[in-house]
Amino acid sequence: MDPAQFRDRVADAKRTELDRLGSGKLLIALTEADLTDDAVLAAAADRYHAAGELLAAWADDEADADAASTFADLAERAADGYERVAAARDGHDPGPPGPVYEHLRDLSGTVERAAGLVGHGLLADRVTLQFVSYFVNEADEARADLFRERRTDAADATDAAAGLVTDRCAGSAADDAADVASAVVDVAYREYADSLRDLGMDPKPIC
C-alpha cells in the first residue's frame, strides 16, 4: 500500500462523516453560529495554534529521526499558519485545544501518531475549504488566498504522514493504523454533531 492508497482508504471509510464535516454547517458549529470574520478567523487560529503545539511536542520526543524531522517541519508550517491567521485578525489569544487535539495528544508511537495525523489532515482539508468559501463569499480574496495556502499545507501534511505510516507497516499493522486515523475523524464528527444539536440543528443533511 502506498501513501495515497492509505489516505484514500481512510477517506473512503469515513466518507459520510467527512462529507458532513465539509458542509456549510461546519462554520456554524465552529463559531457557535457567529458567522463573522472575527469569529471565523479566531476558530481557524485556534486550530493552527493547537496543531503547531502538538506537532512540536511530538517532534521533541520522537525517537525515529525521519519522523521527528517530519513532525518538526509540519510544526513550523502550522506555527506560520497560526501567525498569519492571527495577523489577519489583528491579534489572537489562543483558546484551549478542542477534543480532536486532546485525542491526538494521547497517541503514542511513530505509526500511531502518523496515522492520527492522516485523519487530522483529511479533516483539515474539509475545514480549510470552508474557510476559503467563507471569504470568497465575503469578496475577501486576500483572506481566501491565505486559507488556500493553508489547504495546501494540510494536503502536504497528510501525504507526509501517510508516507510515514506506509514506510513502517503493512498487513494487519496497516489495518490498525487506518483505524487510528478513522478514530480521529470520529472524534471531530461527534464534536461537530454535538455543537449543532446544542444550537437546535440536525447534523445530517436535509435531502
Topology:
Blueprint (H helix, E strand, L loop, with lengths): L2 H11 L1 H7 L3 H7 L5 H25 L3 H24 L10 H7 L4 H28 L3 H28 L3 H27 L9
Helix pairs in contact: 1-8, 1-9, 2-9, 3-9, 4-5, 4-7, 5-8, 6-9, 7-8, 7-9
Which descriptors apply to this entry?
single chain; 9 helices; 79% helix; 0% strand; 207 residues; mainly alpha
Describe the structure.
The protein has 207 residues and is an all-alpha fold. It has one domain (3-92, 108-198). The protein has nine helices and no strands. It has helices spanning 3-13, 15-21, 25-31, 37-61, 65-88, 99-105, 110-137, 141-168, 172-198. Helix 2 packs parallel to helix 9, helix 6 (99-105) runs antiparallel to helix 9 and helix 7 packs parallel to helix 9 (172-198). The longest helix has 28 residues, at 110-137. It is globular and about 45 Å long.
Mean pLDDT: 93
Q: How can the largest sheet be summarized?
A: none
Termini separation: 36 Å
Rg, Cα atoms, Å: 16 Å
Order of helices and strands: HHHHHHHHH
Give the strand content.
under 5%
Helix content: over 70%
Number of helices: 9
Number of distinct beta strands: 0
Overall geometry comes to: globular
Low-confidence stretches: none
Domains (count): 1
Q: Give the structural class.
A: mainly alpha
